[in-house]
Design a protein that fits this description.
single chain, GATase_2_dom, aminotransferase, cytoplasm, transferase, EC 2.6.1.16
């Protein structure tokens, strides 16, 4: 969450900073600001709301700079005001932006107030800039002051600082919150996501945990947590500049829903060999690890957690290995048991999810056989710090509500299941052949859009809803409920359909829509009984059903027929209509589909 862009150049950087912030709007934010330095003239412009408001204010102020930092803030400490927006300034000399949370800000604030520093905001960030200013008086360079300051900060931060005494230098520090350096000719850049810098560079350096760097127009110096100079790999990006464009679509989310057949094709490309999965898609040492694995522990958050829940059904049924799935923020704060020959699997679109990354680091101390991540961002922290990595190749996902990242995660997890089974001598040709049909099956599911758009009208005045599924469709119901609540703000819950009698039936009435996912499998008759329980109590039911499952529409039930698919890939296919439903309901309700309130795309704090 939050976005950072910085630049040090010979030319004015105003437009570079603003364009970078626009490319990071998907991350979620509520205010924005920029600090510009030209010679020794330091100017700050801030605005509440969208980056467009900042751009207008910046144009009106008519200030420019060749060194600058910019930020989009997602409020944590302090309400949404210009005073709380970044950048923060100390004594009109040092400017700073920050992603993350400083947990010991209260004690630092008290000490700094005692030393005469005046605080103008409610943020935890302002203590950083004042402490660095104080330490700058004690050290010969800004770099040394920042290196001393970070030792006093507790929590997570990605921070960028400059001192108006030197307009050819910015200092950056990373601890738990990602930062990437962009390399140019006679200019260099910093951002929280490479997407922000694609218009100006294709060459990037990802900072490691604990790194502090000094960036000038002509040089980049990086120091590790011990203060030792280090070299980090330069990576050339192949992401296209227009990856973030909406094209013909009204919203990024709709574009990304329709990109799913292509995204899955990209995920599969070169990774299926005849009737098997190419093991090297997971890493060089994957084959031996998969032979030895007896248990899989999956850790994830939000949508990625739901993909892990589906994978538990697959791994235990088809690969014969036990599997636990846990929310990362819970896993990292409890005592857990490590099974023999256990593979730890983390799942994250960004590869920077704070709780998931912290859980991986904790697990490395607990004796897991190996770690693996399923991720969409090459070079991200989870990819760099895991033994194995499966890249989903979904492409840039801009909408806050995840769509194509989720379906490609499911594909990756199904391929993981097949790979482990293969290495244990089990024939997985049926699963692989089903996987091959997925892109076409997703295209067929997208043809339901018009009917679902009409159906969505019936949700316009609803405030609550209930999603039901059984077996591997239960996590898909959970994901459907999450999507609806995320972007339409309708309260939605998901239940395993067999749990209706244990509480949820008390909620059923004509004002509570019930959404059911019903592929034609061995649980269908059980599910039909659950549907009848709802009908008997006056509920209105919306069933996404296999066209051969014998559900029929009437005054109490709306049936949307889905083409038959193999049961193993049904969770992926049935995700599509639920995404479309949430999208069209949100459009009808007039919410901000791509940037829903209070949410962020990449959650880099606890």
């Amino acid at each position: 969450m939050c976005g950072i862009v910085g630049a040090v150049a010979e030319r004015p950087v105003n437009k570079i900073l603003v364009e970078g912030l626009k490319r990071l709007e998907y991350r979620g934010y509520d205010s924005a600001g920029v600090a510009l330095l030209k010679g020794t003239e330091l100017n700050t412009v801030k605005a509440v709301g969208k980056v467009a408001n900042l751009e207008a204010a910046l144009n009106e102020a008519a200030v420019k700079g060749t060194t600058g930092i910019a930020h989009t803030r997602w409020a944590t400490h302090g309400s949404v005001t210009e005073a709380n927006a970044h950048p923060h300034i100390s004594n009109s000399e040092i400017a700073l932006v920050h992603n993350g949370i400083i947990e010991n800000h209260a004690s630092l604030r008290d000490a700094l107030k005692g030393d005469g520093y005046e605080f103008l905001s409610e943020t935890d960030t302002e203590v950083m800039v004042h402490l660095i200013h104080q330490l700058r008086q004690q050290h010969d360079t800004l770099l040394a002051a920042v290196q001393a300051a970070v030792k006093q900060f507790e929590g997570a931060f990605g921070t960028v600082v400059f001192d108006k005494a030197n307009d050819n230098e910015i200092i950056v520090a990373r601890s738990g919150s990602p930062l990437v350096i962009g390399l140019g000719l006679g200019e260099n850049f910093i951002a929280s996501d490479q997407l922000a810098l694609l218009p100006v560079t294709r060459s990037f350096i990802y900072l490691e945990e604990g790194d502090v760097a000094r960036i000038t127009r002509d040089s980049v110096e990086i120091f590790d947590a011990n203060g030792d100079a280090v070299e980090r790999e330069v990576i050339e990006s192949n992401i296209t500049q227009d990856a973030s464009g909406k094209g013909e679509y009204r919203h990024y989310m709709l574009k990304e829903i329709y990109e799913q057949p292509l995204a899955v094709r990209n995920t599969l490309d070169g990774r299926l060999v005849n009737d098997t999965v190419a093991i090297d898609a997971f890493g060089e040492s994957a084959q031996q690890i998969f032979k030895d694995v007896k248990h899989v522990q999956i850790i994830a958050c939000g949508t990625s957690y739901h993909s892990g829940m589906v994978a538990r059904y697959w791994l235990e049924q088809f690969a014969g290995v036990s599997c636990n799935v846990e929310i990362a923020s819970e896993f990292r704060y409890r005592e857990s048991f490590v099974h023999e020959n256990s593979l730890l699997v983390t799942i994250s679109q960004s590869g920077e999810t704070a709780d998931t990354l912290a859980a991986l680091r904790l697990a490395k101390q607990q004796g897991y056989m190996a770690s693996m991540t399923i991720c969409n961002v090459p070079g991200s922290s989870l990819v760099r710090e895991s033994d194995l990595a499966f890249m989903t190749k979904a492409g840039a996902e801009i909408g806050v509500a995840s769509t194509k990242a989720f379906t490609t995660q499911l594909v990756g997890l199904l391929m993981l299941t097949a790979s482990i089974a293969q290495e244990k001598g089990l024939d997985q040709s049926a699963i692989v052949n089903a996987i091959k049909t997925l892109p076409n099956k997703l295209e067929e599911a997208l043809l339901l859009a018009e009917g679902i758009e009409d159906l969505a009208e019936e949700f316009a005045d609803k405030h609550h809803s209930l999603f039901l599924g059984r077996g591997s469709q239960y996590p898909i119901a959970m994901e459907g409920a999450l999507k609806l609540k995320e972007i339409s703000y309708i309260h939605a819950e998901a239940y395993a359909a067999g749990e209706l009698k244990h509480g949820p039936l008390a909620l059923i009435d004509a004002d509570m829509p019930i959404i059911v996912v019903a592929p034609n499998n061995e649980l269908l008759e059980k599910l039909k009984s659950n549907v009848e329980e709802v009908r008997a109590r006056g509920g209105i039911i919306y069933v996404f059903a296999d066209k051969d499952s014998a559900f029929e529409s009437d005054e109490t039930m709306r049936v949307i027929n889905v083409n038959h698919v193999d049961d193993v890939i049904a969770p992926v296919v049935y995700t599509i209509p639920l995404q479309l439903l949430s999208y069209y309901v949100a459009v009808i309700k007039g919410t901000d589909v791509d940037q829903p309130r209070n949410l962020a795309k990449s959650v880099t704090v606890e």
